[in-house]
Amino acid sequence: MDLSYLKELLEQIQVDLSQKQFEQFIQYYEMLIKKNEVMNLTAITEWKEVILKHFVDSLSLKQFYNLTDQRVADLGTGAGFPGIPLKIAFPDLEIVLIDSLNKRVKFLNEVIEALCLEKITAIHGRAEDIGRSVEYRESFDLCVSRAVANLSTLSEYCLPLVKVGGMFIAYKAGNLKEELERGKNAFFKLGGKLNKVQAFELPETDIHRNFVFIEKKNKMSKAYPRTAGKPAKEPL
């Protein structure tokens, strides 16, 4: 499998990998495509498209955030994005992948084992339940999510996991003006504050993306997250 495209794009976002790490990306891709034949993991399956829209998109955060020696939650990870690419590229990170579908979690654990990744686990559960768990509540330096949900709902899923002084970073596309305006109340109620919105383009494309940085300023009320289903049906 030709690695030149991956190497070229990673160079542009200043991510430097060893041969072993490149091989891990190839193996991850092969496992993803094979499993995708029997369960719906991704609509993007062509090698170069996966490189650009999954691998490089996941790793673009490195340009704007120091990804070293942190405990990271990836909420709504799905097929493992951005958590597994981040783990391959930055092995010092301790990562917990969280997804509500057990079949996806089983796949993620197969990938973790096959790639011999350490300090990474995949857990099955709803965000609202995990956010109330003693083991995970306010215990992460960083929570990331590429999940498709509005920022108010995503914040109620993610900010309960972030320790005071930590950060929730949402991977988002499109115009965020209205979504950010609606989200201000949620950020405040959840102990967070909008830090910045970092716009960027995927290398060699006109595909626009945003990172929304929400800093955890205060401990969270025990009222949040609300019971399962509420954050999605009735955003703060």
TrEMBL record:
Keywords: Cytoplasm, Methyltransferase, rRNA processing, S-adenosyl-L-methionine, Transferase. It is an enzyme of class 2 (transferase). S-adenosyl-L-methionine binds at G76, F81, A127, E128, R146. The keyword Aminoacyl-tRNA synthetase does not apply. GO terms for cellular component: cytosol. InterPro entries: rRNA_ssu_MeTfrase_G, SAM-dependent_MTases_sf. Its EC number is 2.1.1.-. Belongs to the methyltransferase superfamily. RNA methyltransferase RsmG family. Specifically methylates the N7 position of a guanine in 16S rRNA. This is Ribosomal RNA small subunit methyltransferase G. It comes from [Clostridium] polysaccharolyticum. The gene is rsmG.
